[in-house]
Amino acid sequence: MELAQVRLLVTDFPACYRFYGEVLGLTPQSGAVDGPYEKFSPAVGSAGIALQDRSMMAQVLDEVGDVAAGHRSLVVLRVDGLDAYCEEITMRGATVLHGPAPMTDRMRVAHLKDPEGNLVELQEWLLLRG
């Protein structure tokens, strides 16, 4: 078994597309700015984050048509140079809600939200520094 992607069901597809592509700097697979689906990939690794228009999925599962309430997901991305990356994405429109700060003695983190309110955690693994 291999993790292929984490898929987020969104209502404002263009805003989320911009966030994951332009703000976080992930690479879109096809350029479907208006959806209803797009997969984004980081520079390394094979798994990705995909966006799917919530109304499209509601055609398959009625319950998905309900408005999402509360925090239903947490997307975690590992980055090198957390401080510099946070400065970079802030200049591109992100709002860092917490951090960068130590989470454990092995990791520093920062937290932000995408336009739909999904939490995004940026991790810098300190053990990889050697």
UniProtKB/TrEMBL annotation:
Start and end residues of each VOC domain: 2-125
InterPro entries in the cross-refs: Glyas_Bleomycin-R_OHBP_Dase (IPR029068), Glyas_Fos-R_dOase_dom (IPR004360), MMCE/EMCE_epimerase (IPR051785), VOC_core (IPR037523)
Parts forming coiled coils: none
Alphabetical keyword list: Metal-binding
Domain of life: Bacteria
SUPFAM superfamilies: Glyoxalase/Bleomycin resistance protein/Dihydroxybiphenyl dioxygenase
Record protein name field: VOC family protein
